[in-house]
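User: quick one, sequence for these tokens?
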């Protein structure tokens, strides 16, 4: 059974003439980490919004097709409650800051407060996440006074603290420096070990390839290809659709252009080149 499934989704934003999403079907299995790539404007964020229920609950427009979550049509009647099941870190962390809390600590705890989690339990969870994301230094700061990167980390913390079944991260490292970017990817690796189902939209394919079981490529609102990471990055449709492939995969494909499976890490490349020569 899939955790979430999109079935033949068509979607048009209000006041637009063309479909943004076109007959898109996609399944995500429990415990899977799915990377979503594609050029700017291809529809990645829109797909995330449909999975999180913001479309049609918040953005109107015309939506056709079905979203099945945990074997039932996605219930978008209470988006606050749905946050407990589906966590979503927005591409723009400014959107995520609630504006009603004056410290990072309270901001992270806001979702738990809304769900009436007992205070002691909530405090414990917030402390754990602050430690995990290394936010001790900014815990008493006003969320609005933070840098873009710090806001992004707080937004991520606000999602993780709710411990949702499905975590959707829309370009979670777009504002982060290289070391914070790596820290976020390490956190994703840990969440994966805990069995979480995660969808990550990112242009940083080298990092994405290291954590994702599968990659989906979207072009012009359509799903071009979805499959196991090492296979997808050997598929010429990815580059033709405006998607990038990891540097190490590109290097291997230059040497072995007909490969149906490519390495996505330097270690894998080393092993595969060794085998190819043997
Ligand atoms: N609220 C909206 N109303 C009308 N059109 C929209 C709206 N939001 C997005 N679009 C359009 O839908 C298309 C897909 O946008 P979307 O943000 O989903 O793409 P994306 O792949 O996430 O892009 P990026 O990589 O730049 O974040 C774009 O053409 C965009 O202009």
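Assistant:
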């Amino acid at each position: 059974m899939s955790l979430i499934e999109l079935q033949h989704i068509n979607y048009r934003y209000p006041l637009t003439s063309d479909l943004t999403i076109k007959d898109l079907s996609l399944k995500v299995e429990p415990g899977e980490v799915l990377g979503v790539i594609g050029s700017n404007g291809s529809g990645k964020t829109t797909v995330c919004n449909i999975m999180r229920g913001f479309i049609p609950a918040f953005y109107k427009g015309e939506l056709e097709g079905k979203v099945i979550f945990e074997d039932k049509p996605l219930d978008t009647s209470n988006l606050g409650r749905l946050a407990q099941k589906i966590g979503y870190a927005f591409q723009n962390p400014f959107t995520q800051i609630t504006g009603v809390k004056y410290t990072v600590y309270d901001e992270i705890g806001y979702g738990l407060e809304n769900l009436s989690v007992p205070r002691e339990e909530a405090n414990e969870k917030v402390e754990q996440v602050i430690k995990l994301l290394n936010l001790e230094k900014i815990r008493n700061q006003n969320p609005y006074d933070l840098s873009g990167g710090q806001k992004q980390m707080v937004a991520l913390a606000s999602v993780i603290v709710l411990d949702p079944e499905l975590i959707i991260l829309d370009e979670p490292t777009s504002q982060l420096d290289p070391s914070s970017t790596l820290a976020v990817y390490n956190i994703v690796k840990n969440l994966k070990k805990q069995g979480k189902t995660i969808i990550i939209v990112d242009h940083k394919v080298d990092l994405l390839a290291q954590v994702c079981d599968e990659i989906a490529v979207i072009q012009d609102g359509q799903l071009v290809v979805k499959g196991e990471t090492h296979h997808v990055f050997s598929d010429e449709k990815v580059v033709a659709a405006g998607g990038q492939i990891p540097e190490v995969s590109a290097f291997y494909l230059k040497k072995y252009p007909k490969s149906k499976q490519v390495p996505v890490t330097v270690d894998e490349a080393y092993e595969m080149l060794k085998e190819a020569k043997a």
